[in-house]
Amino acid sequence: MEHAPFGPEGAHIRWTGTAGAGDGGPPRAYVHGLGATSAVYHAHIAAVPALADRRSLFVDLPGHGISDRPADFGYTLEDHAAALAVALDAAKVRGAELIGHSMGGSVAIVLAVRRPELVSRLVLTEANLDPDPPLTAGSSRIAAYTEDAFVRGGGFEETLRRIGPVWRATVRLTDPTALHRSACALVRGTRPTMRRMLLGLGIPRTFLVGGHGEELGGREELTAAGVTVRTVPGAGHNVMFDNAPGFAAAVAGQP
């Protein structure tokens, strides 16, 4: 496990990783979604032979997994991107391929715009591109609580009872304050929006959609801007669990 200080004094962002089996190209950094952890969602993908030749980093964003959870931190998408940059700088990574799931994809977009030297390619899985996601989205349901009601009034516990066993496994490891502030940040979005930033980037970009998920809005606009949009069959929001071979092939750039 590696770590580096970020934000409030004494707080550290942490990651694990693999050295890779050879000189297969730029390192890959995997970034998890809201209430998740990177190794749980992506380590089995990085071990696939087509991907194992690269150095891989599994970074846990502030408030999630093994990273610290300072109370005096904003947990905005920009804050998460700045902390992720700290991790990549400490790991001496440049020109990485970022594989971001859901909220992690939004964070990856912000980082690619703010620190372009750190990112050579984006693979975004079911990423949040617009503010105000549907009320059925996990972030919107969490953000519907006030922070006090969520953290101290039973909202966190209600959420754990409501969600399914897969997400619950990592949500229960997430700091409630960080979870709520991160969810509010997703609902609020960025200025310009994540979609606008993604459209303006010049690096290779792939957007993955689960075949069983909701229809991707603005697909034609993304394609026209050079974003490769791929539907992974047999998958919902958690593409890497539902169709691991299809997800790994997309990350590797295979047809």
Name the features:
39% helix, AB_hydrolase_fold, eight-stranded mixed sheet, 255 residues, single chain, Rossmann fold, globular, alpha/beta
Chart the SSEs and their pairings.
Layout: E1 2-5, E2 12-18, E3 28-31, H1 38-46, E4 56-60, H2 77-90, E5 96-101, H3 103-114, E6 119-125, H4 138-143, H5 147-151, H6 155-162, H7 165-171, H8 176-188, H9 194-200, E7 205-210, H10 219-224, E8 228-232, H11 239-242, H12 244-251
Parallel strand pairs: 3-4, 3-5, 5-6, 6-7, 7-8
Antiparallel strand pairs: 1-2, 2-4
Rg value: 17 Å
Q: What is the number of beta strands?
A: 8
Distance between the termini: 34 Å
The structural class is alpha/beta
Helix amount: 25-40%
Number of domains: 1
GO molecular function, one term: hydrolase activity
Protein name: Alpha/beta hydrolase
InterPro entries: AB_hydrolase_1, AB_hydrolase_fold, Carboxylesterase_BioH
Domain AB hydrolase-1: 31-144
Structure notes:
The chain has 255 residues and is an alpha/beta fold. It has one domain (2-251): Alpha/Beta hydrolase fold, catalytic domain (Rossmann fold), CATH 3.40.50.1820. It has helices at residues 38-46, 77-90, 103-114, 138-143, 147-151, 155-162, 165-171, 176-188, 194-200, 219-224, 239-242, 244-251, and strands spanning 2-5, 12-18, 28-31, 56-60, 96-101, 119-125, 205-210, 228-232. Helix 2 packs across helix 3. The longest helix is centred in the N-terminal third of the chain and has 14 residues, at 77-90. The mean pLDDT is 97.
